[in-house]
Amino acid sequence: MHFRYLGNSGLKISEITYGNWLTHGSQLENEQATACVHAALDAGISTFDTADVYANTKAETVLGEALQGQRRESLEIFTKVFGPTGPKGHNDVGLSRKHIMESATASLRRLQTDYIDLYQAHRYDYETPLEETMQAFADLVRQGKVLYVGVSEWTAQQLRDGAALAKDLGFQLISNQPQYSALWRVIEADVVPTSRELGISQVVWSPIAQGVLTGKYVPGQALPEGSRATDDKGGADMISRWLRDDVLERVQQLKPLAADAGLSMAALAVAWVLQNDNVATAIIGASRPEQVHDNVAAAGVTLPAELLSKIDEVLDPVIERDPARTEDSSPKTREV
């Protein structure tokens, strides 16, 4: 495993992060989820990402149990706050001081830890003053419950505003967690340059585009049984936008490129996002331990410029690049 600094901080994290969105507490039984976490640990992964909203808090509980017995100081545990949790009442969502403080306390309990290494605003809250949100994060840092603060899917201007307030309040905003893959490059035009300027790293999710970049979805063929595309607990909804013949046909053309590089399709996809020097880590998910080992093969890989150009050439007609898609990811009003 290789390690990178997270933003302009002294915190090092593993290049590959194990994440449990759409798996723990949902797709997987607890025993299988624990096996995947242990496979990640065995592979040298030290960084684990979750969120209170995943499986309505169950994912945090499963991760906390799976990590019991590990040396806490050797781990970096990330979680997030924003989405509706619990009974999804009128204050069970957003980035108000009330929701942030209550959610942090609940996440610590579920994760069975005294502190969160990186606490992230899961989306931007248009209905709460940014000053209130950042003050709550600052207080959690001073209380020792949170060591570092990050965000997820914020626009370049939102990052700029948040970083300025954080500085005024005596802490740093060190990370942003966006979707990023060879197919989804919306952060490249604005978010990445602004992040470099501000000392913010990307902690990227969906580097294999919900599994599409593995090449297992073939145009004209039935969806693989047990795959995310057949999951009725949320997975199928997330992957549906990629299951177009034009996308799948292009992805199939990457297979010989991966073979020439000596990588699986999944490892090629993960290695691709890690070529961006503003990316600190790529979050992988897994439903089986062997998937963890496959993805970890991307750590430390340098893809030659010629290969990167060939990937661009193959995928260019189906790549999403519109920077406005980042703003679209945060709801303009709270869901409840």
Automatic annotation (TrEMBL):
- All copies of domain NADP-dependent oxidoreductase, residue ranges: 15-315
A family per Pfam: Aldo_ket_red
For this protein, the record's CDD domains field holds: Aldo_ket_red_shaker-like
Cited InterPro entries = AKR (IPR020471), K_chnl_volt-dep_bsu_KCNAB-rel (IPR005399), NAD(P)_OxRdtase_dom_sf (IPR036812), NADP_OxRdtase_dom (IPR023210)
- SUPFAM superfamilies given in the database record: NAD(P)-linked oxidoreductase
Family to which this protein belongs: Belongs to the shaker potassium channel beta subunit family.
Q: What is this protein called?
A: Aldo/keto reductase family protein
Key words, A-Z: NADP, Oxidoreductase
